[in-house]
């Protein structure tokens, strides 16, 4: 079994290495006809840019995007600079250099990777999946009998912030940096999944498709790990299945298939992605698209509003915010699968809790103010509100919160700060759900009388950094806005002290200072004081 | 300002300190020679198993003590001089007190076995014991086999610890079945099988004779009364604990097996109290033992003595007995009294149900004549403390308990439930026709 595991690891690393190496290789040759078509379709009026590309790029062979991308970027920047100087506003190109490089690079690809997409998929994703499964499946036997087996978590480099964890950290952060800030280098990856994208939506894959496909793949493989690790715990099994279903069907398949729609609205939409996590829902361009998008567009507009204002809070009232954060949400889904081995790294200090409360509510306020501005701008048909450019606010949010916080930090920092950094410190939807959960909900984690022995497993494995033990050892139920109801505190408790449940609001919060077990009059004395 | 000195920073001492601080402004000092800060002794096993690090076992962050003006002193108390209200430390320095709380805990028993003080022979009680295990049994290359002597809760914990590092374990148990002085036979048998399912070499009815040393004075093997010699690299001695009171022998404080206290946790010396594992009641409380080395009783004694010291003289009145443990992957909870077959063969009727997977069972004890419910042991199924506490107070009969068993279920959502199976067996054995009622929030919260 150990041997299978090790072979699996080698295969996985081989797949990962090829996947990484792919970024640096490949032959790119932009054909004249392709470029002409691009110019026509995108209505590019800058003859400076067209000439430069015709001269320096078209018909020439480039080795890898690292050779091609700077040339395109240079051409774009030089052309734009000249147009600005000449005040030729109509000729300016508004694409970012990196997006232009990606757009022209994609059809320019030629050579082995583009000609052997299937084989290349097998050598990257295929080997990765196979190796990972070979690494994970032997755990059915190696972990021993079913039950909580956190053996060695703090003895191993990968899960104890050792060198492996830091390597994973570097890889994840780099991956997200490419995705958000250098998509031109992801062009080769898009070829690997072109066939899948064409099957689904009929379009060639972009880097976001790579991300979406990879997201689902990683979640599926790591869900297998969850199923094995928690095979004694039906709550975890059901929850993992749910979160996987919503990711694959709602976040991936439905939006991709919507690309095939013939109607006036054929953009992908993730029906479960609620505002304000879906922060651009009320951006004016999105509102315009929805309003102009016929029946479906209007339906989505109404659905999005109802989802946030009615469905989300009502569900939180009945089930706690777990129904969203750890049963439905994509960010939560990745955290609960890929992130599960790192859940113990969330900080439980009081200081972190203070930071958390300031930060997450600040993001919520930011999101709401920004949305108010965009809505005002939309209805008043103005681009500035109170002298501030709405577009600048939107760009700042997209960059700082949408990309850096949610992506680079949120996932990249898994091996160091735990798997819920974004959900705990940043997600504005989590903050909103948290208010409902804290003040008006039937959900609580019940503490079982006086059975707690203060061992600390619950706190250690709380991904949201809640000091669960602090409540349990006092016999208090745990009612915290940040709890996502993953159920792991209850799972790791060796004494059966914790239970997630939805019950009547009366008696949900039970302040006690002396626990059950003492004779009644001491409890009365202290509790009724 | 009155100076309260507490010897021992375990759960009882810390509970006392916290509650004295809640109730008063007195100066509080906690003394310990084991660790600087309070940690959860029950979590020691998880440090070795890699579930947690030492820092995770500390229930309070290190700033907590200063913020609550609880002074901590890392020192070893040599003697208590109650005539001068003074403690003398190992380094000769002294500290005076106005009131003294002895919360000094226990030490592992040793029964004079030859070789019991060799290197590589140890118990599992203090933080230092885990460090020793790390030294003598870091992995199965250094430690080819571990032998554990003593069939109780700590013994099985140690077995699970070694097992987590794939170190082969031989487990010598004096009794003919694991922990059968406490557990009824059906349950004890199931735990025997659970131990063996985890590939522990369980040897029942076997006593340790001698621990043999190698040339460096380290344990290399043990011999048993069955005539076997078992090669090993570490020996765990876990035949129970007794109060850690040697330093009090000359103090004038009345001692028995532990520090003798009355129901107010007062010793024979005014202004000196004893709580937790080291305290011995003059008269046992109910069916409880005079010395209770249990986590929550230590906590409750701390809470009680804090009231007394702050002017509200209270009796220590533990409520209905309860406890819990975990045997490898099987959780155990008990509420009320279920006696082992050995301890009380015919005092109460026991109803025993065991699941076909052999990893879940319950035993319900009730009075044969009155049918009054007196206790339950539950393995592999979590149950609600509050519900059983209430049923015991209300002296419910066993039929009522069976009928409302779903109210007591505390397993996570989506778990299979076994109440129907349990009650139908109960009906068959007792000629009753009890129908299990659906869980009712109204009943669960009726007294809350």
From TrEMBL, chain A:
GO terms for molecular function: 4 iron, 4 sulfur cluster binding; metal ion binding. Residues 443-471, 474-503 form the 4Fe-4S ferredoxin-type domain. Pfam families: Fer4_10 (PF13237), Fer4_5 (PF12801). The chain crosses the membrane at residues 7-28, 119-142, 163-182, 208-228, 240-258, 296-319, 358-379, 399-417. GO terms for cellular component: plasma membrane. InterPro entries: 4Fe4S_Fe-S-bd (IPR017896), 4Fe4S_Fe_S_CS (IPR017900), Electron_Trans/Redox (IPR051684). This is 4Fe-4S binding protein.
UniProtKB/TrEMBL annotation, chain B:
Keywords: FAD, Flavoprotein. It comes from the Bacteria. Residues 3-284 form the FAD/NAD(P)-binding domain. Its cofactor is FAD. It holds the Pfam family Pyr_redox_2. The keyword Membrane does not apply. One of its GO terms (molecular function) is oxidoreductase activity. PANTHER family: NITRITE REDUCTASE [NAD(P)H], PYRIDINE NUCLEOTIDE-DISULFIDE OXIDOREDUCTASE DOMAIN-CONTAINING. Belongs to the FAD-dependent oxidoreductase family. This is FAD-dependent oxidoreductase. It comes from Spongiivirga citrea.
